[in-house]
Automatic annotation (TrEMBL):
PANTHER family, per the entry: CADHERIN-87A (PTHR24028), PROTOCADHERIN ALPHA-4 (PTHR24028:SF133)
Main localization, broad class: membrane
InterPro entries in the cross-refs: Cadherin-like_dom, Cadherin-like_sf, Cadherin_CS, Cadherin_N, Protocadherin/Cadherin-CA
Signal sequence range: 1-16
Protein name in the entry: PCDA2 protein
Alphabetically ordered keywords of this record: Calcium, Cell adhesion, Cell membrane, Glycoprotein, Membrane, Repeat, Signal, Transmembrane, Transmembrane helix
Compartments, record wording: Cell membrane
Pfam family, one: Cadherin_2
Region (Disordered): 743-768
Annotated PROSITE patterns: CADHERIN_1, CADHERIN_2
Species this protein is from: Eulacestoma nigropectus (wattled ploughbill)
Amino acid sequence: AVRVLVLQAAWALAGGQVRYSVPEEAKGGTVVGRLAQDLGLEAGEAEARRLRLVAQGRRASVEVSGASGALLVSSRLDREELCGKSAPCALRLEVLLERPLRVFHVELEVTDINDNAPIFPAAWKNLSLSENSPPGFRFPLEGASDADIGANAQLSYTLSPSEYFTLDVKSSDENRKSLFLVLAKSLDRETIPVHRLVLTATDGGRPSLTGTMELVISVLDANDNPPQFNHVNATDPDEGSNKEFFYSILSSIPIGNRELFTINAKTGEIRLAGTLDFEDVRLHELQIEATDKGTPPLSGHCSVELEVLDVNDNAPEVRVTSLSVPVAEDASVGTVVALLSVSDRDSGANGRVRCWVWPASPFGLEATFAGSYSLVLREALDRERVSEYEVEVRAEDGGAPALRARRGVRVPVSDVNDNAPAFAQAVYTVLARENNAAGAELARLWARDPDEAGNGRVSYSVWEGGVGGGGWRPASSYVSFEVRAVDAGEPPLCGNATVQLFVLDENDNAPALLAPAGSAPEAGEAAAAAGSGSGSVTLWAWAAWGAAAGQVVAKIRAVDADSGYNAWLRYELWEPRGKGPFRVGLYSGEVSTARALEEADGPRQRLVIVVRDHGEPARSATATLSVSLLEAAEAALAAAAGSSSSSSSSRSAVGVEMGSVAASAATNVWLVVAICAVSSLFLLAVVLYGASRWAPRAAVLSGPGPTTLVCASEVGSWSYSQRHSRSLCVADGAGKSDLMVFSPNFPPPPPGPAAKDAQPEPSALLDT
């Protein structure tokens, strides 16, 4: 049974290396070592992190069990096939561990077993010896070879029993022995013409293995003097043909390299017939034979050793043993990208190799073990700047001249979601006309995300966290909201942009006439409805004859729901055309007298006033103003009565501010007060005169009676009565001026004569 000997399963301090030993010819499935445990991995971690092996140049014949993490024999292990005569036979393996990528070194020594028997160059060998050869004559023999190493290749030789021959073995070292067949007794061709011996080679293995070669020795007739060697130059003191001889190569070590050399049969000059390779065989041993032409021929032997000197004939070799690509752009500095093996078959300075990476960034080389390098990340990556690198690993040996090698490595960079979508502008200003249909495009925004695939796929939305929330919202003339762009990465990244939407006005609203202040609510609604349409609205006003030019009679009030020029109104007097008694302020809407009013202007004037905006096309509304021409006092009273009637009966005297009458009332009020005062004084004088004559003097006048309150506003008119006390107010709010008018109110005279000396208390006629 094959047993596995674990020589060492500990970390070497210098290189972090695990060493195992396994005999050759171990069966498939044989456990070499508990690799996962020796690397310090937990149970199940080897499979989760894909623990695997990368062989260094030669077939390793071992594998890692994914389930257990043990190192197993996967195929036949033949030390002689893997390493030849090299000792020890150590296989350098690299172990990869992912997530994160780590590299470990494993050295597996394949130990030798005695599975190869000694082999002679031939199954038999023919020798010729003269019968007069003296005892002690030595004839060189070619030894056997053993493919094993160590004790398994240490050979001992024995010769089958013979009274004529013995075997002499001389050891130059433990692996090289010279064999000589020694003549122990004089030969007699007539007695024994042919001798047959068996040469046996036995190795030092347990159990030992053997190999044999048959020696066939022919005895020749006598020939006095054999040739003697002087280096590779032989001499023969014999005369004639006995003095002539020729050279030949009997054998070579290693076996099979005899064809690399030739020897000149006459001169003994050895020449190369093939190419020597220091890396294959560093020492050649040739057995040379010189044979004369005598009868019988005699021969002499010598051994020639040729040492091969190394020259720089092998360029470095760069192999990529493992490549972990693509590399994520957020990979940390020091991440292992690839594992490389660099070797040079030459020796000494010719085999010393220097390696580097071109270009120098962002990758570099780190020596991990003899001849092993890791291509590692030296700088941070950015896929959006460089998405792929073409890296060249260069190697140069120390020979003269130096030989070089290079190996290209393509390193793609994989994307991570490290870029948020970015709008071209932080703030977008959008101008849109009103009356757009729902779903109409207002503007087109675009956010750039330089990532790829899902990391760069952007979706847009109105940000729910903005003012008013997401979705549709009512728009005024100005709306500000945020648009959010979100990519599909994990985790998703987003960018925001502010959209300022300005709604451009269109002239879609006609001017609307406003109801006069103090009018009934239904009158106001009627005015607004009429003003928004295209029909004409009739308004009333009063003016006094004799009013001077510039006297404000009424004021047309209108509004436009549009803005800007579309809401800028102008007022035009459409009828009567020509030089009429009235005019309209172009932008104020005030109807005033163009000249002094005369009786010839008639009792009534009909004015058609058009209100237009400045839009394109312009929209308009029409108001018909009926101005009644009265005497000054009548105009004031009519204005007051009309105002009271308007508030009680809710008639639609719409769109006009009656403040025009207030301007004339401010002039006429004093006239009315003066007339009332003079009338009161006259009446008082008459009463006092009558009382002084007919009334008793003891009568006492009562105090003043109830007063009459007249309120005047900027849009109101006057109303007065001597018979009734009433409160008149046109405007809803306080007027410009309040007049308190006190009128005398005498009770009926008491019966009896009036006192002549009774004097009434003077009453305040006017208090402002």
